[in-house]
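Worked example 3 (structure in, sequence out).
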């Protein structure tokens, strides 16, 4: 996984302070979405790695973004690999 430069993530609600982008958190979330729709472990890991790398590349030119921006771009890339997992990822807050 590429290491991103320090990027501030502005929280959606604005109630919490911004934080640095943590690719491992995104990787974990994407992997969990894949596993939630019964993807095999190896496939979930591979997809999470690919999606996280795509987001890191997208972030390269941005000094700060919102958590919603990260979620939207991650879902866009996840949809290419696993549309069902992407739907779950996009609507996680609505489903849980």
């Amino acid at each position: 996984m590429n290491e991103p430069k320090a990027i501030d993530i502005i929280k959606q609600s604005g109630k919490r302070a911004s934080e640095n982008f943590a690719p491992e958190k995104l990787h974990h979330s994407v992997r969990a979405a894949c596993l939630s729709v019964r993807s095999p472990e190896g496939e979930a890991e591979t997809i999470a790695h690919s999606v996280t790398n795509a987001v890191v590349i997208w972030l390269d030119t941005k000094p700060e973004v919102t958590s919603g921006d990260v979620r939207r771009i991650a879902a866009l890339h996840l949809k290419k690999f696993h549309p069902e997992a992407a739907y779950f990822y996009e609507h996680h807050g609505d489903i849980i």
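Notes: The two ends are 29 Å apart (CA to CA). The mean pLDDT is 88.
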